[in-house]
Write a structure and sequence with these properties.
With 371 residues, this protein is of the alpha+beta class. The chain contains 13 helices and 16 strands. Helix content is 31%, strand content 24%. α8 packs antiparallel against α11.
Length: 371
Amino acid sequence: MTAPMWIDVAALADLFDALHARGYTVMGPMVRDDAVVIGELDSAADLPYGWDADTEAGHYRLRARTDRAAFAHSAGPQSWKSVLHPARARLWAADRTADGGMTAAEEPEPPRYALLGVRPCDLAAIGVLDRVLTGGRHTDPVYAGRRDGNLVIAVDCTEPGAVCFCTSMGTGPGAVSGFDLAMTERVDDDRHGFVVRAGSEAGEDVLSALPGVPASAELVAGAAEAVAGAASRMGRAMPAGDLPALLAEARESPHWDEVAARCLTCANCTMVCPTCFCTTTEDVTDLTGDHAERWRRWDSCFDLDFSYLHGGSVRTSGQARYRQWITHKLGTWTEQFGTSGCVGCGRCIAWCPAAIDITREMAALAEGPDR
């Protein structure tokens, strides 16, 4: 791979031109509804320049920055799951013909996505979803279709939020692999730009189209120091040790009752989680009965009907449902897929209306009376 390059912030416009010329639909962060969300970007002007996010347990607010940094915000309510594994997806549609037969509608081909501004924690989450949804015998066709041909442009994290804990999960704050391009944003009084490194031939091709210069040793070292500084300023940390074993031993811990007294079983944590993948299906028809569709939508293990079997639900209490979620996320996920289901993005902490903090709950279990 080529040596790291330096591009000025103005070259982001050239980046968009290069991506569009290669047939990509660019998805990335933008400000909408008082949050940084993921959406289709028409140009570099759509990026959230000069915005940061103030986060805490049960709290998320945008705040203006004094500089024009484009990627200084921490994780917002949406992850790249919303693009690759959408909240609603039509699986098929059919119409009854005049002779009593049936015709099926063709589902359109998804576009080729360029994912711009992927945080290292979200980069790890995409890797988790790849293993879950395409790594086994049964590939998920919706995910595979949207994932195929992606160009991934990661952005190293240099300013973590108060709920971030990627360092303790080994998923950040620097991007290590799984990207086509990785950028480290640098803003000071003299310059605003990016140290950019390629991770694939497709990334090198795009980088060659940008007006950049070889990054100096000073710039490369400064970028590395900024990422290392972010690692030392994480707002949270997951307890060290064997988390699957901890959860297995704490199955009957009285702490689950304490969590259940606060948990609303609203499923916010699973909706914002970048790796939760559960779905259900719904069949709908029009009033004539001549048109039918099958849709897939996100589901959650916090839903009472999620564990429904003939005769009733298996997990009827909030305690059982919260324990199921956290035990799968941090415990049995490893047994199933060879990795943790948590990447340390902190979204479940920020977007929990009861301010339940997964890192503090794990610390309480580690320090509990049954330990």
